[in-house]
What does this fold into?
Amino acid sequence: MKKIALFLLPVLLVACNASEDNVFDLNFKLIPVKVGDNWGYISRDGKFAINPQFKKAFTFREGRALIKSADDKYGYIDESGKIIITPQYKYASVFSEGLAAVAKEDQTIEFIDKTGKTAFFLDQTMETADPFFEGLARIQVNGKYGYINKEGKIAISPQYTDAGMFLDGLASVETKEGDKAKEGYIDKNGKIVIAPQFDMAGDFFDDRARIKIDTSYGFIDKQGKIVIAPQYSQGYDFNQNCAAVEQGDLWGFIDNNGKMTINFQFKNVYPFTSSGLAIVESASNEKWGVIDKNGKFVVNPQYDEIDGFYDHAAIAKQNGKYGLIDDKGQILVNPIYSDVEPYPLSVFGNEVHNDFFNISDISDIIYKDMTPASARGINRNTSFADLQQKFPGLTHDNSYNFTPADDGNSALQLSSIAVIPANGFITYGNEQAGSPYGDTTKVYHDDLPVVAVIYTYTLKNKAYDKADHIIQLLKDKKPGGFTQEIINEHALVLYGTGYNVAVKIKEGNLYFGIYAGEANFDDVKKSLSEP
It folds into this structure.
């Protein structure tokens, strides 16, 4: 089990004890555990309720648990272990408000109900999606965040560089001006109710939200008024009318007026949950134990890890293995498991990605204006002077690494063009024949046909992720009138009537070379075959 990053704990631990409508709520009747290479579920008495059979298993939410099959596809089971939704998704979220976001390979994001029926598909421009909170789900378009409603329609336009979930009617959002980012809050209509002014803005709990100004943390109320001045080096969200805060290298707890209730004394802490208990790491022995709201240890610090109490039970690690303890420290399940998964997928730690990839976007760019006699207006008679007309700014000095205007899209970025001139393109005059260095004056013969023009594209986003498939996909889109040869999984050649074309992908770049008849194409093919 990977210890959850401390900055995520306020949301995870606080909300896990909320109502069943909360996406973080945990069902501790069935606990995912790993035995050997497989995952199953045990009950609180340590007996297997669902035998180990999955490559990965997650906590139950709304009567469904996300599982991963041997072929790395996600599906869902019910509490009897029956597969309700067949593993078929490349990405998947937990259920929240009756819906889950999923995406199959090479397809857009969709939301499904608990039977697996599609509720709606998202537009292919939507890059990511999170579960629903208060009827709205965060989505991302062109790197900006907004929100959709339960019909899949944009409710708040994507305009923020970052955004949080809606809790109690408000969500934190981030705006940027140049390199400066500030965070504030919007309501469910998208109206800014607390202007972006903080360096960090957390979620509202107990009518308080954690904020950061410069390097210090404090708290505001729902009107945006600072009620606890920024003075802490770190802090967690409020729950049970108290919050964990750090000063120096030690943690303690304050109430919602900022009064210290438990002095700074712990190396690390988790926030209090509805159990009235908090998990803390002792500064003296660096072991984890459990305290009550008076700061008294109810479970002495003796464990390597403990993860939040839910229904008076917690997962604890000792000697490299995981088991279950109660809130008095009594062992419920002996520590014998190599891994456990107490949390549902974090709502922002495992957002669902759009896997749609339209190869036509790439093939239309790579193969544009191609006939067997010319490519992009370039043929065996194209001279350097012709290319200077075609590419304003091309000179003799930058011809091997000319930076053109980008004619790509979200998948490709044209980063450079290299022009290989003909033999005899440069000769030397006699103006400095008396020089000890001989004839040094260069004479350019711009009217001679060039040997090759090589375009270099940078693969972006999904094109980068799917680089291994692109050559095959370009093969399927071969322009008419060409003979095609596949060199390997990364390179291909097209033979035209007056020129040849070479395409290769290497280290995140796509190279598209137009070679005239003068080129030694055997050497070109040899270079294409190199790794």
In short: The radius of gyration is 31 Å. The helical segments are 9-15, 359-366, 384-390, 461-465, 467-476, 521-529. Residues 467-476 form the longest helix (10 residues). Residues 1-25, 345-349 have pLDDT under 50 and may be disordered.
